[in-house]
Amino acid sequence: MIVEDDEGIRDTLQFALELENYTVVTAANGRLGLELLSAIPPPSLILLDLMMPVMNGWEFADALKRDSQLTRIPVVIVTAYGDQAKAIDASGVITKPVELEALFHVVRQCAAPGRTAGDTG
Amino acid sequence: MRLHFLFAALNSVLILFGMFVMCLAILRGRRLLGPLKRLELHERWHLLLRLMIFFVVGYAAVLGLVLAGRIELLIGFTAVIFAAGALFVFVSVNASVTVTRALLGNEEQFHTFFDVADVGFCQIDPATARFQAVNAKMEEITGYRLDELRHLTFSDITHPDDRERDRVGYFEMVEGKRSTYATEKRYVRKDGSIVWVAVNAVTVQDSPGRRSRTVTVVQDITERNRAEAEHDRLLRETRFRRELLETLIQNAPVSIALVSLPDVILELANPRVFATAPFELELGKSIFEHMPPEMAEEFRAKYAQLAAGENVIDHDRHVRRRLPAGAYEDRYYTVKRIRVRLPDGRAGVLILAEDITEQMSRRRELEKRVDERTAELRQAYAFVNAVVENIPDAIFVKEATELRVTHVNRSWQELFGFSYDDIVGKSDYDLFPKTEADSFTANDRKVLAEGMLLEMLEEPAHTRAKGERILHTKKVPICDDRGRPRYLLGIAEDITDKKQAEEVRQKLTGERIAHAESERALHLRDEFISIAAHELKTPLTALRLQIQLLTRLLGDIESAKAPRLLTLFRSSQVHLDRFAKLVEDLLDVSRFSAGPLSIERSELDLTGLVRRVAQHYQEELGRSGCPLVVHLPEAVVGHFDPSRIEQVLVNLLSNAAKYGAGKPIEISVEPRGAKARLVVRDHGIGIAEEDQKRIFERFERAVSMKTFGGFGLGLFISNQIVKAHGGTFRVESEPGEGACFIVELPLPGG
Predict the structure, then answer these.
(1) What pLDDT band is residue A26 in, cutting at 50, 70 and 90?
(2) Partner residue facing B541 (CB), from A15, A96, A101
(3) Nearest Cβ partner for A12 among B533, B534, B545
(4) DSSP letters along B98-149, please?
(5) pTM of the predicted structure, to 2 decimals
(6) CB neighbourhood size of B165 (10 A)
(7) DSSP character for B596?
(8) pLDDT tens digits, residue range B393-407?
(9) Which chain B residues contact residue A98 at CB under 8 A?
(10) Do B552 and A100 touch (CB under 8 A)?
């Protein structure tokens, strides 16, 4: 699952991951992300931007932490503000601009291709 | 017959008339019969009674003759009766007078004595206790006249307290129980005053058969009593004074002694003399009897002086007395020897010695305290003087009447260019131009008149040493105990420099504000750079992802143009990487402005890092034409932030390639003691010495922007990273000789 407000980045990431056989869902901000999470089975991984309108990445991460189910989902921060990602207990941090290979490497560590929903192992 | 009766009647009348005349003569006839006046009243009555019996008998005989008708005998008989009567009276009176004449003769003398005596005489009738006769002195003593006293008894004028005792004593005498009566008693005089009298009474028996009378001698003893009382009083007083004197001498807190000259015999001494004398003394003996010989010489000289006529000798004396415990006691005396004359006329010496040990001790204590206080005051004065003399303000003191200077401190002398001796006693008119002196004097007078502080914030003054100066002056009066101004104290601060400094400060403040504004502008710039970098990152990310994705996808396309497109995409990626690095550099600059760089250390082998980076940049270095020569040991392991150290290495290689002029670039890593040393050396254009320090600052470059691009941030960022690791970063270079950048990083255990 990708939570990213910039449409270009969001679509490119989605496209790149789908090419790698991942099933990807996207949300344009934290609020929409939470709504989506309540409607679908938990994803294997969440790629989370920090600077977003409506609900930012930090608030979204806090909301996940408060939910006993959602808190188990690994979260990788994708941000231009690498320094500020430290406030969030994340599985990984990818700083923008994103190196595609580095992205795949991190994603592969957290989720096997073709598995979007269901258990995360 | 009728004639007989008529004649008898006439005869009776005659007899009766004769009797009347005789009675009158006896009772009242002092002048008629001289002797009669000596008779007492009761004697006269006695005489009259006998005469009347005679006449009654005679008259009966006359009546008998008439009745017998013997008228012719009547005339003759009557004549006989008269004659006989007269004879009887004469004989009786004379007999009585003769009996008492002897007595009366003495009594006349007595009366003379009685009247002139200086003591009071009185005669009292024992039957009535009334006064019968008193002399003039008695009248004087009692204050009553005789005719008043005749109606009074002696008890009437006796003091009530003495009355009963006196009465009893008197009547015991009258009754014959005692022959005389003597007492001392008080009379209450007519004027009410009291008079003391000594009374001596005696009963007088004039003649046998006559009633006794008492004669009393009264002596006024008031004066005597007063004199006796005065004598007693004087005696008591004398005794009291003697006792007082004795008490005084005995208890006096000083030693008092009296010696007679020339042998210096101790005639009198109070106990203190014996108690304090350092040797034994005895009354009636010479004081030299037991005096130690070493003292005697001195004392003999003193007494010789006094004997020779000296009146007073004063001296102080120190006596060391042995105490029972074997210790000594030091006592101090002040001794006065006064030459006197003793009551028996001999010369003597009165010795007065006062123990002044305590006084001495107190005086010493006092002197000590005075010394201490004086030292304190001197110290305080020295302190105040030091303050006044060394204070940077100019201080002056003028006396209040003529406003002449009495004191100036060093600062004043330095400021005005006068020495202390030049100035003391001078007035402002001797020292300053008249207009200034007028102004100063007016202010001085105002301060003294109002008794209040006057402050001149800026007062121009002409000084000999420093020319025209601006002073901040305070003037205050110094008053005496009664509040009258005695001095004028002035404190002047030379504010000329301060004013100038204030102007400079204001100018500097303006500059500081400008600097702060420029700082703020810099901050705003950094903030803008940060925001701009972050904002640039978003499209950059999308673009980069897309290029990467396209590059990957191109592999799947089979076309003759595919290899060219691939080259194009890779070129785009290189440019995007460069773009990304520029953005990252900008972001780093804004980070350094915000605060110290935070680094995340982990174990890192520097040789491994160098190899990886060298390999990664092989292509870029190849494009610059600079061959890379790497000198690496097996491993140099430390705790560093890998990404940041890589950033440093990339910056150095990038710069070396940029300015290396196509010549070889050498890179080496080696451990140097506790440090790891990373050296990147090129052989390019080099850096002038004046530029070498500057190139580590942000946006600085040693070369023209027109020739070489870039932000000029690489070395600045690298330097910050090395500093954050606790390392050092320097350059060694000569223009045209290339540059050698040396990074030294601390190793664990260093």
Answers:
(1) very high
(2) A96
(3) B545
(4) HHHHHHHHHHHHHHHHHHH-SSEEEEE-TTT-BEEEE-HHHHHHHS--HHHH
(5) 0.40
(6) 12
(7) P
(8) 999 999 999 999 999
(9) 541, 544-545
(10) yes
